[in-house]
Amino acid sequence: MNRKKRIVVLIALSFIIGAAGMAAAASQDTYSLPEPYLAWEKAYLKEFPELQGLMDVMIATAIQQLKEPGGDILHNRVCSALASEMARPLAKQERKLAIAADILHNISKEDKGAVLTDPEVFRKCSEMVAKLKKAGYFKPSPGFWGDEALLKSPKVGGNLALIHHITGALTAGEIARKAGGFSEKDIEMMQVTIIEHSTGYWYFRDSVDQAAGRKGAWQAVFPEPENESARIAHDADLISQFVYGSVVPDGSKWRELAKKRWKAKDTKEEGHIVYYVFFRLYEEAKTEKGKALARQDWEKIRPELVKLMGLKPDEDPIKVLGVPKIFQ
């Protein structure tokens, strides 16, 4: 099934689920969500019941793309719940769009066909970016989308981790148009929010620079969050990573990433790598609320990561062990 047909099928599925009404459990009820995120999610779905359809599409997509979708579903739900709380000062419609964008921000992260090395995908993404630039977006990031060769290269354009914010914005726009209820201006705002959500991941920026062989190359791929909605989505994505169960336990998302992506050989190296990643991540928040929440959650996971390294509570892992070799 091609990418366009998959989107149509997922939209149809969301309508089927929605039509089942209150007699059936919501698609997300199968998966656990810790407090306070569950309460926040229930509150925003009560306020914006039309977002349940996007939730259904997100969950159906994760189930289709992954053997074990629970971790991705948890992440997306935590993100959107955080966004709903952080966006409370915004106007109601802007807050709704921030939540909608966060529900769908990873929609193409595991779609192997959604890569910029595919000429058709690159053409569609280029048209989207050009349209958004014409509408006045990305002015703080003049280098964004300015290096076609880099964007099309296998190491960048073929790497889902590095470009899913772009292809995800394209897919989210298609989903929103088919779902209905969103104006073109709404969709543009959602797309910009999704495109700007990944910039704080310093190791993504480093990966682009390494692929290009020069510092600052990442600016062609990752634009800076330029408005409050985008900054909230950016911070919600960062903070969602700090959920204890995703970081500390054996087999958790981040310890598995330490082994598979960054080649950790034992528990001590897992702790060391994850500590260093999060030590730098929590400083990337753009909003005051985001900084406070990141600091709060960092203080919960930091002592546990120190234990994994076999260090004393008052020892600084970076001073004692240095920067992990993989990041040197």
Short description:
The chain is mainly alpha-helical and 328 residues long. It contains 16 helices and no strands.
Give a topology summary.
Elements: H1 3-19, H2 37-47, H3 52-65, H4 70-86, H5 92-104, H6 119-134, H7 148-152, H8 160-179, H9 184-195, H10 202-212, H11 228-240, H12 244-247, H13 253-260, H14 267-281, H15 288-308, H16 317-321
Helix pairs in contact: 1-3, 2-4, 3-4, 4-5, 4-11, 5-9, 5-11, 8-9, 11-15, 13-14, 14-15
Largest sheet: none
Structural class, by secondary structure, is mainly alpha
Summed up, the domain count is 2
Number of strands: 0
**Cα distance, first to last residue?**
42 Å
Shape descriptor reads globular
Number of helices: 16
Task: Tell me, rounded to a whole number, the average pLDDT.
Answer: 92
Helix content: 55-70%
Q: How much strand content do the residues show?
A: under 5%
Low-confidence stretches: 16-23
- What are the secondary-structure elements, in order, as H or E? HHHHHHHHHHHHHHHH
Q: Using only CA atoms, what is the Rg?
A: 19 Å
Structure description:
With 328 residues, the protein is mainly alpha-helical. The chain contains 16 helices and no strands. The chain has helices at 3-19, 37-47, 52-65, 70-86, 92-104, 119-134, 148-152, 160-179, 184-195, 202-212, 228-240, 244-247, 253-260, 267-281, 288-308, 317-321. The protein is 62% helix and 0% strand. The chain folds into two domains: 3-223, no CATH class; 241-327, no CATH class. The radius of gyration is 19 Å and the shape is globular. Mean pLDDT is 92; it is low at 16-23. α3 (52-65) runs antiparallel to α4 (70-86).
